[in-house]
Amino acid sequence: MSTDDQVLEEFTSKEYEHGWSVNFEADEAPMGLNEDIVKFISHKKNEPEWLLNWRLKSFRHWSQLEEPKWSNVHYPKIDYQVLKYYSAPKKGGKIKSLDELDPEMIKTFERLGISLNEQKRLSGIAVDAVIDSVSVATTFKETLSELGIIFCSFSDAVLEHPELIKKYLGSVVPAADNYYAALNSAVFSDGSFCYIPKGVRCPMELSTYFRINAANTGQFERTLIVAEDDSYVSYLEGCTAPMRDENQLHAAVVEIYAAKNAEVKYSTVQNWYPGNKEGVGGIYNFVTKRGICAGDHAKISWTQVETGSAVTWKYPSCILKGDYSVGEFYSVAVTNNYQQADTGTKMIHLGKHTKSRIVSKGISAGKSQNSYRGHVNISKRATHSRNFSQCDSLLMGNQCGAHTFPYIDVENSSSQIEHEATTSKIGEDQIFYCKQRGLDEESSIALIVNGFAKEVMNNLPMEFAVEAQKLLALTLEGSVG
Amino acid sequence: MISIKNLHANIEGKEILKGINLEIKAGEVHAIMGPNGSGKSTLASVLAGRDGYEIMKGSIVFENKNLLDLEAEERAREGIFLAFQYPVEIPGVSTTNFLKTAINQIRQHRGKKSLDAVAFLKLMKSKMKLVEIDQALLSRSLNEGFSGGEKKRNEIFQMAMLEPKLAILDETDSGLDIDALRIVSHGVNSLKSKDNAIILITHYQRLLDYILPDFVHVLFDGKIVKTGDKSLAMELEKKGYDWIKAEHGSLETI
What we know:
The complex is a heterodimer.
Chain A: H1 2-11, E1 26-28, H2 35-44, H3 49-63, E2 87-89, H4 103-111, E3 125-131, E4 134-138, H5 141-145, E5 150-153, H6 154-160, H7 162-168, H8 179-187, E6 192-196, E7 205-211, E8 222-227, E9 232-240, E10 247-250, E11 253-258, E12 263-270, E13 282-293, E14 299-306, E15 311-314, E16 317-320, E17 326-335, E18 340-349, E19 355-364, E20 369-378, E21 386-395, E22 401-410, E23 416-425, H9 428-436, H10 441-457, H11 462-476
Parallel strand pairs in A: 3-7, 6-8, 7-9, 8-11, 9-12, 10-13, 11-13, 12-14, 13-15, 13-16, 14-17, 15-18, 16-18, 17-19, 18-20, 19-21, 20-22, 21-23
Antiparallel strand pairs in A: 1-2, 3-4, 5-6
Chain B: E1 2-11, E2 14-24, E3 29-33, H1 40-48, E4 53-62, E5 65-66, H2 72-78, E6 80-83, E7 90-94, H3 95-109, H4 117-128, H5 135-139, E8 141-142, H6 148-162, E9 166-170, H7 178-191, E10 197-201, H8 206-210, E11 215-220, E12 223-228, H9 230-239, H10 242-248
Parallel strand pairs in B: 3-10, 3-11, 6-9, 9-10
Antiparallel strand pairs in B: 1-2, 1-4, 4-5, 7-8, 11-12
Helix pairs in contact in B: 3-6, 6-7
């Protein structure tokens, strides 16, 4: 048994790879949060009056809210007055073409394995790169615009497509939705906007890459995806942050609107800094993600691989309003050392014949706590609807925890719900079996863990899947038992 | 090929192997029989390098290397293969993927290039015939939902793919019906050569009708107490183990 623990121990003690930071000259807001800061952010972005008012309303609402306490995560009280709410690399900002971009910044992203150079880039992916509070580059804008697709930073969208932003902003996640959504609505800085017109199938993967660089800074990005009738888009999101001893706050909002027959696939590989082995530092990740299948036969599919952050609080959800609409949630959440994750989904069935599918795989190692929290709600009107949920937990070692909190409400008798759950432990037996066939310890664990997560990994776009597999193995390195 | 001298091994402080001596040369088949709890599976685990066993005394030399210095995966790469009595399930990992990873790690260890997909498939096709295993089974999660017979056939298939120098078959015959036993034995016989050796651990003489051993050893109370040829197995089948216990088990009756 002791050797088993040692193996686990070694496997889970791998260092975070993206822990460096770069000194960009930054344009920052003073510390603290009040109406002046909200105005400061809005002015920095030359926003129209209506948006400033929307922010201020959100801020006033947020000021009256209490931080939610129902999730299974524990952390010291956050002092919202000692954070900075806006930080922009000075040389970022307005650029006409990628050639004008600060070479330091290009290097920063290259170090992360993301080339902003379109020629070098695999032609399959367009990238919006966000550092701290601003988007610094968006690639393939022209190629996409020929098809009528809009893919740009949120700030640009506010100025260039105000009618669309006004129509959809807050339509899926209202400003008053919850504590963190309200905070985000008040101080959100940048993010991506994506609009797929009627009948268009987006020919490349769209992706946003988020990087927190500055110290003591919160990141509050906002992503909005609108897919009109009969359109299709696959969207990827990746994130990293430097290693810092203090905790940093990330409170994002993602809204997806899918019209009739539209399909949106949203994939995330979340690799924010998780803190060190003793649990010092790391990102607090409080994210609200929600999509609405507004039209009939619409489909929204969330796939997430969550390996980072000290604390994760995140429930990508689907509102299935259109008849025959489909919602999917595929998740792998890995926690190690002192990480805590409380993640899952909500499937709200409103339309008839709606279907949802939930596949959640939690992997806990070290002294971490990993919770699945899900809510399946089938309303009275949503007759002949179906849900299938599967929640599997894999434990490594005997100091971690896995928890499952499924909530199910069904208000009609023609619908069907299935829920399956398993908990297993990576056994010494499995590892010995692999080793007896010549695999070393690390490969054995990587193989077993990736096998466990396979069903979810299969839903990621190819290029992401390979990265995500490596990330899984890396996150757990040094931790078997 | 392998030389085991005065091997003593404990599990959690309890002595299980109490002085094993065994010499195996290339080209030989050794059967190890014995009643339950005599230490047969422990011997297999110790040879394969499983954690949790304390070696108190003795030595194991395999192909001029001190086996006890090597980790389980290093022993496997040197050519030791254990067909498990209870093969382990690994959900989400197909036999194909599993073997590909294993073979390439072994090849890397031996300074050879990785097999590409085409060469690997070709190798697989040729070995599949040996144990009459089909592609569909190899694409499924390793051992998950396999019948007893499928699991054992899969073990022999892996042996065929990895081409070990020394194969230890731990009760590979248990739980097999006659047809499966014939298929498995046929597979083992076709893999037998003058360059490799096989240890068969079994309870039943039945297996030895299909795979002819050069030596039969009786393991009792952690020691090899009798060695003979196939006729010893026949004798055990007829008389059971009581006479062995009577000769050697005096301590146990106290």
